Amino acid sequence: MAKVTVVGLGPGSWNGLPLGTYTILEEQQQMGSAVFLRTERHPVVDDLREKGIVFTAFDHYYEQSEQFAEVYQKIADHLLNAAREQGQIVYAVPGHPGVAETTVQHLRRQGARAGVEVVIGPGHSFLDDLLVHVGVDPADGMLLLDGTSLRPRQLNPSLHAVIMQVYSPDVASEVKLTLMEQYTDDYPVTVVRAIGVEGMEKVLTIPLYELDRLDWIDHLTSVFVPSTEEEAVVHRQMWRYVEIVSRLRDPEEGCPWDLKQTHQSLRKYVLEEAYEVAEAIDKDDPFELADELGDLLLQIVLHAQIGAEEGTFDIYEVIRSAADKMIRRHPHVFGGGREADTAEEVVQNWQEIKAQEKAEKGLVQRSILDDIPSALPSVTAAIRLQKKAAQVGFDWSDIADVYKKVKEEINELQETSGKSDEFGDLLFAMINLARFLEVDPETALASTNRKFRDRFQHIENSLRERGKTLEESSLEEMDQLWEEAKRRS
């Protein structure tokens, strides 16, 4: 059976080259069999040349391809073909064959199918020297990440992180920006180049924002990011927030108010916080919006914590359910056989998929109005009820008829001396009119409320400047100040 023996060249120095690797290379040379190197860009390669080791390197694949994934697959294909043709070959990689070597992973996955045995030989990873230098025991918890494909979701500030493949200033810049999504701009990171290689080694601890400003970054460069419990970093993590809320509900050391809460008792707070989020949106204040969204998030996490204590659901089930639903209801984005080129088509898909989900759960829809929650605010509920009815043709055909209906309801209200039912009918007709005018009644009324608040507060402030209170002022004086406020707005 054909065979590929994979060996590691160590972190860079001749002293770091494993004896076992050199022995295998010498034996291969004596037999006249092929030796392949993933890259010539490694300090020990010149020493191998001096020792008479002949090899073929794959650096040309890096020049021919734009994506690393393509490079690594081409190298693996080349090696498997060479092994089948020659029977036995050796493939040498920087460091250790089992650490951050995508080509080796390809060989191990594809070797059996190709009829090639893949044997992992000796190696010495740069990690050994790096961790000794920074004084870290990996048993404390450590992440090993690829700088060319780093994602924020891979990071956990409570663990040390070693980021490899930071082979150029461009990669360093991308790594910096990704780290800044989790860490502060001045967070200390250690940049390591050619660790253990005399005359080439560089180790420098710098603030994160300077990471891509170093002029000596190359293919032998890695970045060490130490773990932290610093609040400015850790408090950005969702898991930390879940821990905080869990602590609030701790039976022994928790908060008496939080411990008393149930799903039902929190119901009003969910609504209140949602309205405060809406108010921040209306104010167009991003900082207040972020703050209010945090208050709304507290309600979500609190409900999830109560669910976890009851054994019904937890925050991870909430997130999983939401993620599944978004993927399922967006087949035009995540793949699912449906297309949607317009917002209207997206809504149509959404409704059809939602109906299918209910059918699969055995929920019988007795009315097209069933999916409109009864707990919605009345204005929002009225809009949705009218839109649902309009979808099946139960609607006015002309806006003139809507105006006529509004006048009819005003007359009925006058005739009945202002009964609640008739007032509700008038509001319902006005909401219908807003729908025809393509005006959101909730937004319109919120705007009017803000205007009223601003103008009335102008009255209060103006009277205060005159040394008067509202009670000491006449309606005429307040009307004059109201008109003044209108002219100013």
From TrEMBL:
Ranges of biased composition (kind: Acidic residues): 473-482
Example of a GO MF term: nucleoside triphosphate diphosphatase activity
Transmembrane segments: none
Residue ranges of every copy of the Tetrapyrrole methylase domain listed in the record: 3-211
EC category name: hydrolase
Keyword field: Hydrolase
Domain NTP pyrophosphohydrolase MazG-like: 261-334
Stored PANTHER family: NUCLEOSIDE TRIPHOSPHATE PYROPHOSPHOHYDROLASE
Name used for this protein in its record: Nucleoside triphosphate pyrophosphohydrolase
